[in-house]
Design brief:
Blueprint (H helix, E strand, L loop, with lengths): L12 H8 L2 H14 L5 E5 L5 H8 L4 E6 L2 H13 L4 E5 L13 E4 L11 H11 L6 E3 L2 E11 L2 E2 L2 E2 L4 E3 L8 E3 L4 E7 L9 E8 L4 E15 L5 E4 L2 E12 L4 E8 L5 H7 L1 E6 L5
Parallel strand pairs: 1-2, 1-4, 2-3, 4-5
Antiparallel strand pairs: 6-10, 6-11, 6-13, 7-8, 9-15, 12-16, 13-14, 13-15, 16-17
Helix pairs in contact: 2-3
The structure holds S-adenosylmethionine.
Protein name: RNA methylase
Keywords: Methyltransferase, Transferase
Pfam family, one: Methyltransf_25
């Protein structure tokens, strides 16, 4: 899928259209930017893609908008589209990690997000911004990320063929192939603008099983708080169901321990190989 030699987090232009068609994502960002960006503000967007969020910032009345994009073809598409809209945006072709921000930034928009904080470099890019920016504290959009994990029994059989492959799910759709064995548990939450950013995404969580079955996967749940003020705008991302290397049979009442650790930006296989589940206190034994 990726061009030879390209970094793994490259998103070709055809996938940007998919992001533009994602109504939950687009609606949340449009609403949040309209609430946060006030006339006269200086906005910096890191990872501009096609430039749509920079456009929303212009519409909200920002007095300056800088949009940084690393991929040449995507940068060119953004430059052309913003130009065609007559939007006064400075589009910069650069790696956001090496970009020196202007002296004053009121709002940092950064959507380099993937469920689980996997694959994309949100944390690294925001961290690089924070270490090179000395001006008054900006507002980050999104302002926070909250992550949860849930033990599930997943049907991985397709047309009679069984293969345990990670899969994405629309959280607003019914998922008849997934049986939740316990409610989700939050393992991480942090604000982008406050203190230190996480260097790992790690969980060591105990669940009381509500429904017995074969525990063969976990569902990763990532919710981003785009803004808190004046009213919260949240973006719940598509779920990611990740198969367990070693499925375990569980009964209602069992306590199950699920653990993993990976770094933000790691690939899905790195989470897969770090995943571990064990039954701590079998209900059937007691
Ligand atoms: C998930 S897309 C979001 C695009 C756009 N902001 C939107 O909301 O439609 C993330 C974008 O960040 C870009 N990107 C990834 N890493 C980058 C980096 N280190 N510096 C600059 N851009 C980067 C990708 O090429 C991609 O266009």
């Amino acid at each position: 899928m990726h061009h030879k030699g390209s970094p793994a987090d490259v998103i070709p232009l055809q996938y940007h259209a998919q992001m533009l068609l994602d109504d939950r994502r687009m609606g949340a960002f449009q609403a949040a930017i309209a609430r946060v960006v006030r006339p006269g503000m200086h906005v910096l967007e890191l990872g501009a893609g096609t430039g749509v969020l920079a456009h929303f910032a212009v519409v909200a009345g920002a007095s300056s908008v800088i949009a940084v994009e690393r991929e040449l073809s995507v940068y060119q598409a953004a430059s052309r589209a913003l130009d065609a809209h007559g939007d006064d945006v400075t589009v910069v072709h650069a790696d956001a990690r090496a970009f020196t921000p202007p002296p004053v930034v009121d709002v940092v928009v950064c959507e380099m997000l993937h469920v689980g904080l996997l694959r994309e470099r949100q944390v690294e890019v925001v961290g690089a911004f924070l270490s090179s920016y000395a001006g008054p504290p900006p507002v980050f959009l999104p302002c926070a990320t909250i992550q949860a994990v849930q033990p599930v029994s997943q049907d991985f059989t397709f047309y009679g063929y069984t293969v345990a492959a990670p899969l994405f799910q629309d959280p607003s759709a019914a998922q008849p192939r997934t049986v939740a064995l316990a409610p989700p548990s939050i393992f991480q939450s942090f604000f982008y603008g406050a203190g230190s950013l996480p260097s790992s995404c790690a969980a060591d969580v105990r669940f009381e099983v509500e429904r017995g079955g074969i525990l063969n996967a976990v569902r990763m749940i990532t919710k981003n708080l785009l803004t808190e003020e004046p009213t919260p705008v949240e973006w719940l991302m598509n779920y990611l169901v990740v198969p367990l290397p070693k499925p375990v049979e569980v009964d209602a009442g069992d306590t199950v321990r699920i653990s993993f650790a990976y770094r933000p930006g790691d690939e899905i296989p790195e989470l897969m190989s770090a995943l571990h589940a064990e039954v701590l206190s079998p209900a059937r034994a007691g």
